[in-house]
């Protein structure tokens, strides 16, 4: 069974690209198809502007392309809840400089689920900061 993983990335995307540390403001997403614990395929998907649906636009964009998991360094509470509602698992990968390093950590089971402690302020609520 395969899983489609999205990673916010700097241009031009791909495994060697730097991670885009805030999911909704990245240049592009690197999409990684994982099958049987290994990388099967790598493609990219352009981000959508926030003004077309606010911070939920990227959530819907990724979900509509079949993404089942997202590796992110930062996001607000509202999109995190949005991902949970559309069935996309989010993992914290803010300590990895490249997409490939984050994906490798995911494959090795070293990433923890993205929780409220990792959210950044945005919208009308301020999340706790570390």
UniProtKB/TrEMBL annotation:
Cleavable signal peptide: none
Start and end residues of each Dinitrogenase iron-molybdenum cofactor biosynthesis domain: 17-107
SUPFAM superfamilies: Nitrogenase accessory factor-like
Gene3D superfamilies: Dinitrogenase iron-molybdenum cofactor biosynthesis domain
Protein's name according to its UniProt entry: NifB/NifX family molybdenum-iron cluster-binding protein
Annotated organism of origin: Mailhella massiliensis
